[in-house]
Amino acid sequence: MKITKLSNNFTPIREGIFFGINTESSSPEDLTVEVLESDSGKVVATQQVRSVTSAKVNIAPYLLHAIEHKPSSQSHTSMVDAPTTTFHIRIGEVESERVTVSVNSHPFTTSAIISPMPPVRRMAYGEQDEVLVCCPANAPITAHITSDKGEEVTIEYVTNSGITTLLISTEDFDHSTRRLSVELLCNGEAFGGLNYTITPTSSQATRLVWLSEMGSIERYTFPVTRKSCRTISKKVVRTEDSLVTVRSTTRLVDTLTSRYEPRATIEALMQAASATKVWVESEGSLHEVEVCNSSIEHNLFNEPDNLFLEVCRYQKEVAVW
Question: What CA–CA distance (Å, rounded) separates 132 from 134?
């Protein structure tokens, strides 16, 4: 029996995680394929393969919820390994090589920033941004952050896995800071950078956080809440004596509007409308919300330059009977 790992480490789960099987027998056999989480040895799934001498199996459907990616809970500029999990398969006493999967939904081969957002960004003082970075495993990464006031923060980190999260906090710099420049290096060679405009904090703004199509955690501050709408629906039954409410539903929906942004930014923000996970971030806490509608305004050249999102921040259903 031979088992061959066909997928590389960090292959996005949605592309499939494949292993090849060769029974080394001329007679077809029924096989029981066990999918194991390598570190714990836990069997996460079992697959039956009928009457084969060779086969290719895809374990990705069993791994879709294996890694949960949430916004960082750190409050200061820092760097940590992104979540990863290692799996392998077993048939009888024969085990395969291990394959490592992570939060990335986009393949990568070299040092790079994994993000649909452009490198020129904006955030208010007191906010933070989260950047997913890939590089060779066990390679030293340096993040050098400078402000327009001459302050500098340098972080050096060695990633064990090859995929890292960099958290950038504005509160590590002076209140008067208006610009931050971030340079990223791997093994001493620059491979990416970001530039931030820092704006004053606004009580009217809403900081939205979502899981992008690339697997990265993205953040954007919508400067205006265009309107808030509370809707109440009731199901009422008429009896001989009175009207009786049997169910009541209350929804609070905010309409958020973006700035007039470059096309690349608007296209990246559009992913928030279809994201599987969306949160509102306020005063360091996160509240999961539902994006229920979106619309885009276009400029004179028919290019998208302004985005509206309807965000359901609260919904309560009460059954009386």
Answer: 7
Contact 232, 252 (CB under 8 A): no
Residue count (the chain) = 321
Query: Residue 262 half-sphere exposure, CB side, CA atoms within 13 Å?
Result: 8
**CB-CB contact of 250 with 230 (8 Å):** yes
The structure's pTM equals 0.83
Helix (H) or strand (E) holding 56: strand 54-58
Instruction: To the nearest 10°, report the CA torsion of 206, 211, 215, 216.
Output: 20
Q: How far is CA 107 from CA 3, 90, 163, in A?
A: 24, 26, 12
Residue-wise burial string across 244-254, b where 16 or more C-beta atoms lie within 10 A, e elsewhere: eeeeeeebebb
Distance from C-alpha of 31 to C-alpha of 53, rounded to nearest angstrom: 10
Chain segment 114-149, per-residue pLDDT in tens = 999 999 999 999 999 999 999 988 999 999 999 999
**What is the end-to-end Cα distance of the chain in Å, rounded?**
61
* pLDDT tens profile 23-80: 999 999 999 999 999 999 999 999 999 999 999 999 999 997 777 788 987 889 999 9
CA distances from 119 to 11, 131, 257 (A): 24, 11, 21
Residue 127, helix vs strand vs coil: coil
Sign, Cα dihedral of 11, 273, 300, 204: negative
